[in-house]
């Protein structure tokens, strides 16, 4: 029997190393959104830098942003079929509210790091609780967009070792 496209795609993905970067709500506004807190870099600039780092390491870095919880959950679920090896995620405001997105990450069982541009512990009390930190391999916060680079560096090292 000839393999189907999906089967061939899945096989190709198993050999290709993929890291998924997920950005939650309002991060599409980076660059103009409260720049004193989140900086002046745009999401496109951050993603381009992460993808370039991935290319240097021979890893396919795929970036995804959504303002809706369901779309983020579906993207995380799809990551399992794509054989994504590692996830770097900034759940943004869903950090503090979303059991559903946390459950998606534990369901697919793909290791992940949680990133926040701002120091969530030095802001309003409601930002101090995360539904992700206890199931993440690690959390980086308060280092601006460098946090994504450091999270990806960790992911690339992990993926290289596999
Ligand atoms: C954020 C912190 C969250 O509290 C906030 O809701 C965000 C961004 C950060 O990157 O600092 O949208 O995740």
Shape label: globular
Oligomer: single chain
Strands, total number: 5
| Cα separation of the termini | 31 Å
**Helix-strand makeup class:** alpha/beta
- Helix-strand pattern, N to C? HEHHEHEHEEH
Radius of gyration: 16 Å
Walk across the major sheet and give the strand order: 2-1-3-4-5
Please mark out the parts with pLDDT under 50 across 5 or more consecutive residues, or reply none.
Answer: none
Q: Please count the helical segments.
A: 6
**Bound molecule kinds, no repeats:** 1,3,4-trihydroxy-5-OXO-cyclohexanecarboxylic acid
Describe the structure concisely.
By secondary structure, the protein is of the alpha/beta class.
What does this molecule look like?
The protein is α/β, with parallel strands linked by helices. It has helices at 5-15, 35-38, 43-56, 69-81, 99-108, 146-160; strands at 18-23, 60-65, 86-90, 112-116, 138-141. It has a five-stranded parallel β-sheet with strand order 2-1-3-4-5, sandwiched between helices. Strand 3 (86-90), helix 5 (99-108) and strand 4 (112-116) form a beta-alpha-beta unit. Helix 3 (43-56) packs parallel to helix 6 and helix 4 (69-81) runs parallel beside helix 5 (99-108). The two termini are 31 Å apart. The structure holds 1,3,4-trihydroxy-5-OXO-cyclohexanecarboxylic acid. 1,3,4-trihydroxy-5-OXO-cyclohexanecarboxylic acid binds at residues 26, 90, 92-93, 95, 116-118, 120, 127. Residues 26, 90, 92-93, 95, 116-118, 120, 127 line the site of 1,3,4-trihydroxy-5-OXO-cyclohexanecarboxylic acid.
